[in-house]
Write the structure tokens for this entry.
Amino acid sequence: MSNNKNLQTKPPYGMIAILFIGAFVALLNETLLNVALPSIMEDFEVKPVAVQWLSTGYMLVNGILIPASAFFIQRFSDKKLFITAMALFTAGTLLASLAPAFSVLLAARMIQASGSAIMMPLLMNVMLAAFPVEKRGTAMGMFGIVMITAPAIGPTLSGWLVEHYSWRMLFDIVLPIAVLTLILAIFKLKDVTPQRAIKLDIFSLVLSSIGFGGLLYGFSTAGENGWDDPYVYGTIIVGAIALITFILRQLQMDEPMLEFRIYKYPMFALSSAISIVIAIAMFSAMILMPIYVQTIRGISPMESGLLMLPGAIVMGIMSPITGKLFDKYGARSLAVIGLTITVITSYFFSRIGMDTSYSTLVILYTFRMFGMSMVMMPVMTNGLNQLPAINNPHGTAMNNTLQQVSGAIGSALLITVMNNRTESKTEELLTEAATTMGAGQAGPDGELVVPPEILNEAMLNGINFSFLISTLIAVVALILAFFIKRVKPHYEQKKEEISAVNLATEK
């Protein structure tokens, strides 16, 4: 009933603009700090393992709170929820800017994350409620600008700021935008989505936090610490057990915290599978490219960030265009074309060498992002379109959670593949060098010293092999894309079923 009412009224563009700005600065902030970590490490005299928690901790809080966002969106009004989230984010940003010690900065990042975790699911839910299904593609295309462009711009912007100013400037430029958004929200925001008097199951929240948090932490640290680290496989095992228990509990509840029964809708299930595969493929380039250009090619962090900027701009431009094409043609044709481009460019990345030009890398990366811009939002929107309106909060929460988890898993998987391939290739090259040139040179401690040229060649081989694996992963998504069907929203399907029954009865 409420859904039909929303569909008949004019979409609240002013409210959506406020939500857009809030979500944009929150997502921008997620990747803004990565380039600045060495400067922060130096200022506060902390080790790399500690400073990494500024990124890992932010991701963990997101991973814990996003599954609970379905409950918050159904229980509390849009205005109260967004103002609370924006107030937390603003407070965290201010505290981070003034942080006198590393522990305070870490706490500030956690506070920021607690606010930003709610913004994306809330925005997606408002968009689904505010726009009729025939215009959702265009609306979600605009949303794609926020979802895709903000994280991609982060490294470039932070690289320039850190090069010219203190790392605190990263928070100083976000703070006034956050304050302005908060003020606008207090005076201009209205409620769009309906509320329900549901109760939070505390045990489900605990299981969800341990499950998703454990998996995210385990996989995100596996690339650095190795799979044989007790903290890595221990947290993954505990997380997996808690997650299985959480899912079983949700399936037994009449009003679950996160509704897993939405996977009975085939197009939503298919869209989730494709989104997971795409997230893994996308994160591969975001992680492997900086390693290649900075470590092997010696390109500065600033130029490394600029290399990825055209791709982010193309995705931003294409997102609303893709949305309009989705409304007209559906998701399958866009997904097939986009994934074909992604597969081809990923394969070319698996063939890059020591002398590949900077311009070639920019063109390849930009085309890869162009391909992905045709896939992510159309596929996700097509899946959400099949859900009943009451399940929209669960669908958006599920999609956002899976992107976080699959991104962490994909990163860990591809870094592990790269490291293992690099090690085996190093041994192979050293054996060849010893055969042709004699024994290798031993260091002061008696260990064999690996020449830089051999190490770089081995690492390049590892990166190429990881991109080849990424290509095969993208091929899986391409195959799945051929099974996409254009769906009608659940309430329209019900109308058609009732009409068919009535017609049969009359006959």
